Amino acid sequence: xxxxxxxxxxxxxxxxxxxxxxxxxxxxxxxxxxxxxxxxxxxxxxxxxxxxxxxxxxxxxxxxxxxxxxxxxxxxxxxxxxxxxxxxxxxxxxxxxxxxxxxxxxxxxxxxxxxxxxxxxxxxxxxxxxxxxxxxxxxxxxxxxxxxxxxxxxxxxxxxxxxxxxxxxxxxxxxxxxxxxxxxxxxxxxxxxxxxxxxxxxxxxxxxxxxxxxx
Length: 215
Ligand SMILES: [Zn+2]
Fold this sequence. Notes:
By secondary structure, the protein is α/β, with parallel strands linked by helices. Helices cover 30% and strands 17% of the residues. The strands form three sheets. Strands 3, 4, 5, 8 and 9 form a five-stranded parallel sheet that branches. A two-stranded antiparallel ribbon has the order 1-2.
């Protein structure tokens, strides 16, 4: 099929061999996505009805996600959205709401655009599923990077709250983020959302950030 659109790869600007759905070229798709694809994550660090995170947060995918975080533009959301659609196994799952993990400072309910919300909207439009906005952080968490895993977990305890929780009663929720590291943030958010008595919580992240074990 000949494309008459003046299209080029978002990542390398080549005009050759563009994958229309992804808006990147075949070579970049290989480099960014195929190379970091993993078959499974060994240990699921929380209780959820289902979980998937199929890419390693490294190499060119890491570069793309970091670039997108600092400049959350719809154009970069497209290849990442396609990565989500093709790796999350959502075909057989019915869900009623999407909850993107609220960012550290702004409340999700203030609807300021941040990258996870942008991705959630993209996925939501695809499936025709609304975003649940009434969730927010109850305290500002200090930088996590200098903390040990257990300190992170403690630091995040009780850091989310849900309003209008009756809306979630008996509903199936897609809880999503771009990257998972220890899973502490997701675990904490899951425990808060569980109190609203949903029917199911399906957790998805695009990339999995492997932590080096200190010996
Ligand atoms: Zn390219």
